[in-house]
Amino acid sequence: MGPFSIALVAIAARPKPFKTLFVVFGILKVAIAIAPLLLPLLTPLSITSLNSLIAANRGPMTRSALSILSFPFALALAAFVAFVASATLVAFVITVAFVALIIVALFTLIVALAVLAAALAVIITFAKR
């Protein structure tokens, strides 16, 4: 069972908003776990040698599957993980902003009702005098 399936099984019984949040956290955990393994592939030396590695795969003697270098595939995987991690981060930030907006709106409503009650109390007090 991979990390994604474990995360999905763990959140199966949650309500819908929590499911989305837990899926986002699960994907973020997997991306964070994989990122250190892929960081050595993104050094300047490895990026400058990418052209020579791709060129090595184009020669007539390097057509077998065993001779194909795995660096371009690892780089593509790193790009995919970076994309998923950034999309996950954006989804998390949007979720947090939405929850914060709900909390701020709730407190704004409470303050508005308190101001209304205080205004009514002042009006009643002045009306009795």
TrEMBL record:
Keyword annotations: Membrane, Transmembrane, Transmembrane helix
TM region(s), chain numbering: 25-47, 68-94, 100-127
Superkingdom: Eukaryota
Protein name (record): Uncharacterized protein
Organism for this UniProt entry: Marssonina brunnea f. sp. multigermtubi (strain MB_m1) (Marssonina leaf spot fungus)
